[in-house]
Design brief:
Blueprint: H1 6-21, E1 24-29, H2 32-36, H3 39-52, E2 58-63, E3 75-78, E4 85-87, H4 92-105, E5 113-116
Parallel strand pairs: 1-2
Antiparallel strand pairs: 1-3, 3-4, 4-5
């Protein structure tokens, strides 16, 4: 296995960054409090809905605690061109709703929003 020099590493990092910016990410909090609240079922529901809808360009990931224990299971959604959203109390039914509305049609599921970044209203560097 060959090693990358600094310039090759930078080039690879920029290519991967460009690919990631074109993908939708669904990140499910699977820390101990999330698991106790049913996050494993929520993760499975996202997996099944993504497959059922034959969605490409959607990446489903696991993460640890998001720090919103009172609203577990929590899920972060990153859709290109939209602000990142953290949803709380995401049951399997809500997971299907998030895929059908937020991921597929870019409509927020407002009754479950816990946090929203404001990168959509800020220009880079501000």
């Amino acid at each position: 296995m060959s090693k990358l020099n600094r310039e090759q590493f930078r080039s690879l990092r920029e290519k991967l960054k460009a690919v990631n910016e074109q993908q939708t990410e669904i990140i499910v909090g699977l820390g101990s409090c999330g698991i106790a609240a049913g996050a494993a079922r929520t993760f499975d529901a996202f997996q099944k809905e993504i497959k059922a809808k034959s969605l490409t360009g959607v990446v489903l990931r696991r993460t640890g605690c998001m720090g919103l224990c009172a609203s577990e299971p929590t899920v972060e959604i990153k859709v290109p061109g939209m602000a990142d959203i953290i949803y709380g109390w995401v049951t399997p039914e809500v997971a299907r709703d998030i895929v059908q509305k937020h991921v597929m049609r870019q409509i927020l599921v407002s009754n479950c929003i816990q946090d929203k970044t404001f990168k959509d209203i800020l220009k880079e560097g501000e």
